[in-house]
């Protein structure tokens, strides 16, 4: 009989090509070990609530009331909910067409898109048009929608940083495009060199690829760097010269752990550059409720803002969004609350600030604890996590460890991470899942485990690592930096 469409051999080859290490071999093994009763510390996904981060009270109160509007009619509602949460819930319900159970416009609720536009204006000091903002089910869906519009076939290339968050490599594979890598420089704190970027484009063109877009992740995942304004200007000028649309993945814009390089948006820098750049460079910026001190990953809320995209293309993007009918409506409320937070004088303001500051300040301390912890280990070097949620230490593997990995049929960093998992229960993602230079090895952990658990986790990492190195070191040299 002829193969059926969903038989493995007849599946779309692009689906089979997709790789997504964040939930790959290490995660699967960790889940197995957990089922066997071993205590696992899941640091493979930037999923703060799964590691004990508590939700902010006010937004949950508002969404709870929106989900259960009959509570608003209860005479005792004021005993359970503060007046500002009640007022906000009524406000958001009035923006919907039938509450949270009704589809919204496929671009999202107009009133929430206005709140997003006002947020962007306040943040950047330049106008933002709600008609060019689409709400999405997490930033992931927005990235996928836009990549889908850009990639016409394997001749179309997208510049992606290496290391990168594998949403990009996976989606480019899925849509049958070509990933054009550009390397971030570890010894320059994961900075980006425009000459290298240019070289990547030249090489791709010599292979017949039309490079159409460039991705930046700022702050970086997995690398944790914050791009300077000067660097962003160079990138935008490069996009102008090479006629590339820029994807600014800015989901970690609230996660900043140093003061020298605050977050600056691509949109702001583009507007500051003036003509011709500000009117010519096409930019799509992404944001999410999954990160920052919100960490509301499970709610699946995001948006993208389009700059310099012609109206007819925006209409096509709208049409495609319409095929999915509506982004998740409760998540749109979270987005509204995130971009239009409480103000001084509001009843719940003090509590909101206490909770949100507490989370960010603790993350800042955890970023330091992790970096210092890794740097105290044998054959491990680690740049400081300036932003985002990850630490990405380089593990300098001795040749004997690399040989042992080969014998076991594993990529060397997968081998190391599996050993780490078995010995300590710490579930990480090998650097190979994000891309790295040939012969250089890393792992990624989140900085999200509870602060009080962090010293214990770093001690157990150090103990494992130093014993591993002791076992395999023979002083002939290491994988290189
Ligand atoms: N962009 C980047 C750079 C991300 O790291 C993530 C999630 C997303 C987009 C998508 O987020 P949402 O769809 O939830 O808005 N980061 C994953 C990661 O590396 N660990 O956890 C999730």
UniProtKB/TrEMBL annotation:
<keyword id="KW-0663">Pyridoxal phosphate</keyword>
<comment type="pathway">
    <text>Amino-acid degradation; L-alanine degradation via transaminase pathway; pyruvate from L-alanine: step 1/1.</text>
</comment>
<comment type="similarity">
    <text>Belongs to the class-I pyridoxal-phosphate-dependent aminotransferase family. Alanine aminotransferase subfamily.</text>
</comment>
<comment type="subunit">
    <text>Homodimer.</text>
</comment>
<dbReference type="InterPro" id="IPR015421">
    <property type="entry name" value="PyrdxlP-dep_Trfase_major"/>
</dbReference>
<dbReference type="GO" id="GO:0030170">
    <property type="term" value="F:pyridoxal phosphate binding"/>
</dbReference>
<dbReference type="GO" id="GO:0005777">
    <property type="term" value="C:peroxisome"/>
</dbReference>
<dbReference type="GO" id="GO:0004021">
    <property type="term" value="F:L-alanine:2-oxoglutarate aminotransferase activity"/>
</dbReference>
<feature type="domain" description="Aminotransferase class I/classII large">
    <location>
        <begin position="84"/>
        <end position="447"/>
    </location>
</feature>
<dbReference type="InterPro" id="IPR045088">
    <property type="entry name" value="ALAT1/2-like"/>
</dbReference>
<dbReference type="InterPro" id="IPR015422">
    <property type="entry name" value="PyrdxlP-dep_Trfase_small"/>
</dbReference>
<keyword id="KW-0808">Transferase</keyword>
<keyword id="KW-0576">Peroxisome</keyword>
<dbReference type="InterPro" id="IPR015424">
    <property type="entry name" value="PyrdxlP-dep_Trfase"/>
</dbReference>
<dbReference type="GO" id="GO:0008453">
    <property type="term" value="F:alanine-glyoxylate transaminase activity"/>
</dbReference>
<dbReference type="GO" id="GO:0009853">
    <property type="term" value="P:photorespiration"/>
</dbReference>
<dbReference type="InterPro" id="IPR004839">
    <property type="entry name" value="Aminotransferase_I/II_large"/>
</dbReference>
<keyword id="KW-0032">Aminotransferase</keyword>
<protein>
    <recommendedName>
        <fullName>Aminotransferase class I/classII large domain-containing protein</fullName>
    </recommendedName>
</protein>
<dbReference type="GO" id="GO:0047958">
    <property type="term" value="F:glycine:2-oxoglutarate aminotransferase activity"/>
</dbReference>
<dbReference type="Pfam" id="PF00155">
    <property type="entry name" value="Aminotran_1_2"/>
</dbReference>
<comment type="pathway">
    <text>Photosynthesis; C4 acid pathway.</text>
</comment>
